[in-house]
């Protein structure tokens, strides 16, 4: 019941995090999520559910730190959409690293099986659901 008080089911905030090499931060989920049309979400951009008492930028920062151990700052919102296959509202943020190194141990091993930096062109191979067109444009893919 506590989660119902603190989490807003309306928004999932995801971070498009780039390092100095231009690589994109990705996570592999412990549990694959199934969507409509046979879509399966295994690899994803880090992020998560927004709490009622926090701003979107705070949410994406908190979630990325918890999932990956990286401290980031949201630079701007790239896109907001209802995902056609997973049926949630997703807010995509372009984020920069406050430090190139992990500042903490990831705290969500029950959710994240692997953390990986990939070249932008590899994102399409990892994300098997519909990739947001504005995110693709931001990544140049």
From TrEMBL:
Domain (Nudix hydrolase) ranges: 8-141
Pfam families: NUDIX
UniProt name for this protein: Nudix hydrolase domain-containing protein
């Amino acid at each position: 019941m506590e989660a119902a008080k603190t989490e807003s089911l309306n928004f999932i905030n995801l971070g498009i995090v780039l390092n100095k090499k231009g690589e994109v931060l990705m996570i592999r989920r412990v549990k694959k999520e199934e969507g409509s049309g046979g879509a399966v979400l295994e690899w994803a951009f880090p992020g998560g559910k927004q709490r009622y008492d926090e701003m979107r930028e705070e949410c994406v920062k908190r979630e990325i730190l918890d999932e990956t151990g990286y401290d980031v700052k949201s630079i701007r919102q790239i896109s907001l959409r209802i995902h056609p296959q997973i049926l949630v509202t997703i807010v995509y943020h372009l984020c920069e690293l406050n430090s190139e190194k992990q500042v903490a141990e990831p705290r969500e091993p029950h959710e994240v099986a692997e953390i990986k930096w990939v070249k932008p062109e590899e994102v399409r191979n990892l994300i098997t659901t519909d990739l947001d067109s504005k995110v693709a444009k931001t990544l140049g893919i």
